[in-house]
Amino acid sequence: MVHSVPPLNDKSLLKSQCYIDGKWIGAKSGKTFEVTDPASGKSIGTMPEMDVSDCEVAIKAAEKALVSFRKTTGRERARMLRKWYQLMVDNADDLAKLITWENGKPLADAKGEVTYASNFFEWFSEEAPRTYGDTIPATVPGNRVYTIKEPVGVCGLITPWNFPAAMITRKIGPALAAGCTLVAKSPGETPFTAAALAELGHRAGIPAGVVNIVTALHNTAEIGSTLTSSPVVRKVSFTGSTGVGKLLMKQSADTLKKLSFELGGNAPFIVFDDADLESAVAGALASKFRSSGQTCVCANRIYVQKGIYDEFCKVFAEKVKGFKVGGGYEEGVTHGPLIHNRAVSKVESHVQDAVSQGGKVLVGGQKLPDLGENFFQMTVIRDMKPNMRLSQEETFGPVAGLFPFETEADVVKMANQAEVGLAGYFFSKDIQRCYRVAEALETGMVGINTGLISDPAAPFGGVKFSGFGREGSKYGVSEYEVIKMVTLGGMGQELQGS
Predict the structure, then answer these.
(1) Can you say whether residue 409 is alpha, beta or left, with left for phi > 0 and alpha for psi between -120 and 50 degrees?
(2) Of residues 102, 199, 262, 348, which has the active-site annotation?
(3) Where is the Aldehyde dehydrogenase domain (predicted)?
(4) Residue 102 and residue 196: Cα distance in Å, rounded?
(5) CATH hierarchy code of domain 11-263+466-484
(6) Residue 394 appears among annotated catalytic residues
(7) 64-119: per-residue pLDDT in tens?
């Protein structure tokens, strides 16, 4: 049930049910959960509170659909994905409105996400016909060895709320390209975007049972456990916290699933004193404050070499003062609310901890209750220290902590002290340093002289406690495939009649 409707061009994209086996249905129990607008605090509507039995129905639908879907050609699957991509492009304005409504990010950011999200379908439509195997020279005379790439099977996908469209297309795209079927658990905070995508997939001709979307808020843990424990589900892909990733990995052990996890980050952003200051400030702003700091790859620790530290702090803070916080639909707003009050509490605690240990707030540092309970000022704090909470934990909010450093060796050591290793960034004009530091950082991704690294063509993923596996790029499809080796014996006979 939906309580109010944003001005969508196509109101049929606003769904309040789940998409299973090609049909729109509610939970067997009839239970629902409420979704609220993080900007206004008002109810958006309700979605089905699905449980284990509902999830098992979705798994059975995916299992049934796999029989025929895995036999489709790569070119057939490419056409489906390409059509789904085009439908996203055609309905981009409505998808962006839904994202802003339930996530809170400004409309311009939401439109950027829709473009990014749709591009995964375009990219993987082009990869689907190109899942090549190999011919391998055998060591045994008369044998011929070759490999075939096959779909891993039914996949369980669990996605977060910070990119309601892009995180689900980044998983669905390669799964379908490989010939897999799937059950996707959409985030309880932002389920309407996923439902709209499912409707567009239905219009694109994705066969019934190939893509199934389940929703839950209070039953999220048991839905996850159902996906990880089911012997039918052969692969689980999860984007979220490191703690939940560890739990899902334990739960998957008994059925020996193939896993890919994109987990927490604590990205270092390093500015060397030979960097172009203006470019470095722009890169730090883009990386740190994208989606109000609620991204896993945003700069969390900004290290600036002492030779330019004071100047960087001054210029950076002045730029942040120009930001405008407010509701995502409002004209001129650059940054929206945080997703809920728990996020606000964590941000506030990081600021208070830094100040108590000598950090100096240059901009912001306060909640904005006049706007609503989920709003917090864009914040800059200088003179940060390694023992502060922000240094140890992922803030996931709009707080830029600026740390001074002396030498290259010092800053690489500090950057690598985190137990996670998703993204890292640095700015320098020294080409030798660029290679040296990029190779020294213990992260799965490195941005050099840029604060934005996301690209469907680039492999996305981390090391250490940030997980394993890669999404996007030519490597993305392989996460949803298994390699079958075939050996033909007795192939070395002489030609007949010779």
Answers:
(1) alpha
(2) 262
(3) 24-486
(4) 13
(5) 3.40.605.10
(6) no
(7) 999 999 999 999 999 999 999 999 999 999 999 999 999 999 999 999 999 999 99
